[in-house]
C-alpha cells in the first residue's frame, strides 16, 4: 500500500528542499526523497551544494585564508606569529562539521514544516489515475504516490574523456575537498568557479598550482575589465594560469599525474603534478530516476526539458535547478523551487534570470549581476560606464585588502542599471545591493544619491555610480 502525497520532491538539494518546505507552507502534504548519505550511513540532505560544493568549499576557503593571513599578512598589523603549523586533518574535520550542521538543519526544517523525508533514490514507476507512483530505493525503501512531482536531482561533475575520477589522484570537486595532505604540486584543468576556488585553497596552504584552461580568454563570462583585474591578482599570488591549451592525454602513475597538452603557441608541453583537479563543468544528474518509465523528456545534454515555468512534457511533473536549463547555481535552484511550489498552489511564482547574481569565492572575490560590457557592445545598446577602485576606499585600506574595483553599467539615455561587476573584498555581499536596485529598475543616479555608511566597502558602489556621471568624490 503506497503512501499518497500532494507533492513529492525528488532531491533535497537547494532546489528540492526549498520546494518541499514552500509547498508544505502552502498547505500541501509533502514528501521529499534524497539519497545523499553521510559517513555514518545516515541521511545527508542538501545535495551537492551542502555536501561537496558551496558549503564545504567556503569552509576550506575561510580556513586557508586564515592560514595565509597568519603566515603572510599579520606582520603588517604588528602581530608576530612564530611556529605556525598546519593540521590539514583538523581543517578538513572542521569542514565536515560545518557540512553536518547544514545537513541536520535541513532535517530540522523538514520536521518543523511537516515534510516527510525518505532516505534513498527516487524513481518513476508509472503514471496513475491520481498522478504518479514513485519508488524509493535505499535505506528508506518505500512506494509512494503523488499528484505533483518535482524533480530536483541536481548535477554531477563532468569527467575528462580518458581520465575518470578516482578521487585520489584525479579529483572532482568531491575529492578536491578531501585531500588529506597539502600536495607539493597541484594541477587544475578548467579555470571556472570550482577550479579557481579549489586551486586557491591549496595554493594558500602551500601547493604549487598550475591551471590549464582551454579557452583563449580568462573567465570569458565575466566582464572583461573585472576578469583582467582578477587574473593579475591571482598571478601575483602565485597561481599559474595557462590559457588556450589543448589537453592531449592524462596519465596516472603511482606518484602522480602527467598531463600532456599543447599550449596556446602550438608547442607540446607536459605537466607533472601530485594531484589533478578536473573542473570542466557539470552534467545534469538523472541516474536512477527512470524517466523512461513515464516518458519524461530529456534533451541532448541529458537535462530534463522544461518550459519557462519549469513544467515538463508530463502533466503535473516539474523540474528545477541543475537538472534543467539555465545557470547551475544553488540560489537559482532555490528561486525555481519556490516558484514551482507557488505555481502548484495556483499562485504566480516568478524567477527573473536576468537578476541572478554570480559569485566566485576566491580572494579577491568576484561577483556580478546583469550584463557585461562586452554583451552590451555586442547587442548595440548605448551605455555609460563608471568604476571605482578599492585602493581609494578607506575601509579597504584599513582592512589591508585594496585589490579590485566596482564597475557599473547604465543605459546611456535612461540611466537604468544594466550590470554591476565587482572584484574585491566581500564582493559576494556587496552584490546584493545591485540585485535589489536592478529589481526595482533603479538608475545609477539612484545609487549615487543614497547615503552609504562611512567608512564601508559599500561606498565603492556609491562612488562607481557617481563615476557613471563622471563625478566621483574620492578618486
Automatic annotation (TrEMBL):
The keyword NAD applies. InterPro entries: Class-I_Pyr_Nuc-Dis_Oxidored, FAD/NAD-bd_sf, FAD/NAD-binding_dom, FAD/NAD-linked_Rdtase_dimer_sf, Lipoamide_DH, Pyr_nuc-diS_OxRdtase, Pyr_nucl-diS_OxRdtase_dimer. Pfam families: Pyr_redox_2, Pyr_redox_dim. NAD(+) binds at residues 190-197, 213, 281. GO terms for cellular component: cytoplasm. Residues 356-465 form the Pyridine nucleotide-disulphide oxidoreductase dimerisation domain. It is found in: Cytoplasm. Keywords: Cytoplasm, FAD, Flavoprotein, NAD, Nucleotide-binding, Oxidoreductase, Redox-active center. GO terms for molecular function: dihydrolipoyl dehydrogenase (NADH) activity; flavin adenine dinucleotide binding. It catalyses: N(6)-[(R)-dihydrolipoyl]-L-lysyl-[protein] + NAD(+) = N(6)-[(R)-lipoyl]-L-lysyl-[protein] + NADH + H(+). It comes from the Bacteria. FAD binds at residues 58, 122, 153-155, 322, 328-331. Belongs to the class-I pyridine nucleotide-disulfide oxidoreductase family. The active site is a redox-active disulfide bond. This is Dihydrolipoyl dehydrogenase. It comes from Aquariibacter albus.
Amino acid at each position: 500500500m503506497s503512501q499518497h502525497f500532494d507533492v513529492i520532491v525528488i532531491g533535497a538539494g537547494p532546489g528540492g528542499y526549498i520546494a518541499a518546505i514552500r509547498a508544505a507552507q502552502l498547505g500541501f502534504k509533502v514528501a521529499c526523497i534524497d539519497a545523499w548519505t553521510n559517513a555514518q550511513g545516515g541521511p545527508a540532505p542538501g545535495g551537492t551544494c551542502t555536501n561537496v560544493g558551496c558549503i564545504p568549499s567556503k569552509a576550506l576557503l575561510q580556513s586557508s585564508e586564515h592560514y595565509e593571513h597568519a603566515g603572510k599578512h599579520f606582520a603588517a598589523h604588528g602581530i608576530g606569529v612564530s611556529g605556525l603549523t598546519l593540521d590539514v586533518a583538523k581543517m578538513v574535520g572542521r569542514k565536515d562539521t560545518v557540512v553536518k550542521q547544514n545537513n541536520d538543519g535541513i532535517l530540522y526544517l523538514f520536521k518543523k514544516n511537516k515534510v516527510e523525508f525518505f532516505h534513498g533514490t527516487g524513481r518513476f514507476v508509472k503514471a496513475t489515475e491520481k498522478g504518479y507512483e514513485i519508488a524509493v530505493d535505499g535505506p528508506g525503501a518505500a512506494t509512494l504516490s503523488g499528484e505533483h512531482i518535482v524533480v530536483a536531482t541536481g548535477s554531477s561533475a563532468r569527467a575528462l574523456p580518458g581520465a575518470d575520477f578516482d578521487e585520489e589522484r584525479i579529483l572532482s570537486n568531491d575529492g578536491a575537498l578531501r585531500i588529506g595532505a597539502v600536495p607539493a604540486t597541484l594541477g587544475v584543468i578548467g579555470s571556472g568557479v570550482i577550479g579557481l576556488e579549489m586551486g586557491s585553497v591549496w595554493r594558500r596552504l602551500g601547493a604549487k598550482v598550475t591551471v590549464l584552461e582551454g579557452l583563449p580568454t580568462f573567465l570569458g563570462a565575466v566582464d572583461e575589465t573585472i576578469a583582467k583585474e582578477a587574473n593579475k591578482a591571482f598571478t601575483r599570488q602565485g597561481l599559474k594560469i595557462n590559457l588556450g591549451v589543448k589537453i592531449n592525454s592524462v596519465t596516472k602513475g603511482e606518484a602522480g599525474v602527467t598531463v600532456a597538452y599543447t599550449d596556446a603557441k602550438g608547442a607540446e608541453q607536459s605537466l607533472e603534478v601530485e594531484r589533478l583537479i578536473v573542473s570542466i563543468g557539470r552534467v545534469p544528474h538523472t541516474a536512477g530516476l527512470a524517466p523512461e518509465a513515464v516518458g519524461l523528456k530529456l534533451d541532448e545534454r541529458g537535462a530534463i526539458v522544461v518550459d519557462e515555468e519549469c513544467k515538463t512534457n508530463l502533466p503535473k511533473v516539474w523540474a528545477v535547478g541543475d537538472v534543467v536549463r539555465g545557470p547551475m547555481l544553488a540560489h537559482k535552484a532555490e528561486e525555481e523551487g519556490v516558484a514551482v511550489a507557488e505555481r502548484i498552489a495556483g499562485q504566480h511564482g516568478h524567477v527573473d534570470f536576468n537578476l541572478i547574481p554570480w559569485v566566485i569565492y576566491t580572494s579577491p572575490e568576484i561577483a556580478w549581476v546583469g550584463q557585461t560590457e562586452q554583451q552590451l557592445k555586442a547587442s548595440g545598446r548605448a551605455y555609460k560606464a563608471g568604476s571605482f577602485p578599492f585602493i581609494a576606499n578607506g575601509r579597504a585600506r584599513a582592512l589591508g585588502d585594496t585589490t579590485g574595483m566596482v564597475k557599473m553599467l547604465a543605459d546611456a539615455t535612461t540611466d537604468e542599471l544594466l550590470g554591476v561587476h565587482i572584484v574585491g573584498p566581500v564582493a559576494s555581499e556587496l552584490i546584493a545591493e545591485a540585485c535589489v536596485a536592478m529589481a526595482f529598475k533603479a538608475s545609477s543616479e539612484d545609487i549615487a544619491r543614497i547615503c552609504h555608511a562611512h567608512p564601508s566597502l559599500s561606498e565603492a558602489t556609491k562612488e562607481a555610480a557617481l563615476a557613471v556621471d563622471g563625478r566621483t568624490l574620492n578618486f
